[in-house]
Write a structure and sequence with these properties.
Blueprint: H1 2-6, H2 24-32, H3 36-46, E1 55-56, H4 60-67, H5 71-83, E2 87-94, E3 97-104, H6 116-119, E4 126-128, E5 134-135, E6 140-146, E7 151-157, E8 164-166, H7 169-181
Helix pairs in contact: 2-3, 3-4, 3-5
Bound molecules: zinc ion.
Length: 188
């Protein structure tokens, strides 16, 4: 990994620069999952890491300061990050008490190394006809609509109440390919 960093061709990253690699797949999957706060908490952890060390141990106070996420939501976000396989939480001794140690895992940067929970947010399952967003995971609920002959079950986007349209396999793969290359897929 350090080798990769040293070989970077980015002209902004010469000697004296201080930076870490943004985990694009993790941030996109968390956002697709409606877990923006977890994405911000991951950012707060990242900013304390370096290319030499992927284990960090900021206090909750520090995480709050860098993420803007409240303490209760930090607890929730840490659970989400663990469940998605993006971090591993351990304990380190801090005088008489213990403190959390967060190891930022490889899957954050690799779509192909996502676990089964994170993978649900790789491929869109539909498209919302109202807010125009791609729908991932299970961001819909079922709504009944009385047709002349039968009950028609429609999928309703939880966030906006719009009707969710199915995507063809080809459309799904097209969005997937764009996500992988870091291009923001239309119609965001
Ligand atoms: Zn919508």
């Amino acid at each position: 990994m350090i080798q990769e960093f040293n070989r970077s061709k980015d002209p902004r990253l010469g000697p004296g620069s201080l930076w870490v690699a943004m985990p694009v797949p993790a941030c996109r999957a968390l956002t697709n999952a409606g877990q923006v706060k977890a994405s911000l908490v991951l950012f707060a952890l990242m900013i304390h890491s370096s290319n030499q060390n992927s284990s960090v141990f900021p206090s909750r106070e520090v995480i709050k300061k860098f993420s803007g996420v409240g303490k209760d939501s930090i607890t929730q976000s840490i659970k989400v990050l663990e469940k998605f396989g993006f971090i591993k939480v351990g304990k380190i001794k801090n005088g008489r008490t213990h403190r959390n140690n967060y190891e930022i895992l490889r899957a954050c940067w690799h779509w192909t190394e996502f676990n089964k929970y994170a993978s649900r947010y790789k491929m869109p399952k539909g498209h919302c006809t109202k807010c125009q967003n791609w729908i991932y995971g299970s961001a819909w609920t079922y709504g009944g609509r009385q047709d002349r002959l039968a009950n028609v079950r429609t999928r309703i986007h939880i966030n906006c109440g719009g009707i969710v349209q199915d995507l063809t396999k080809k459309q799904m793969l097209m969005v997937r390919k764009m996500e992988e290359s870091g291009v923001v897929p239309f119609p965001y």
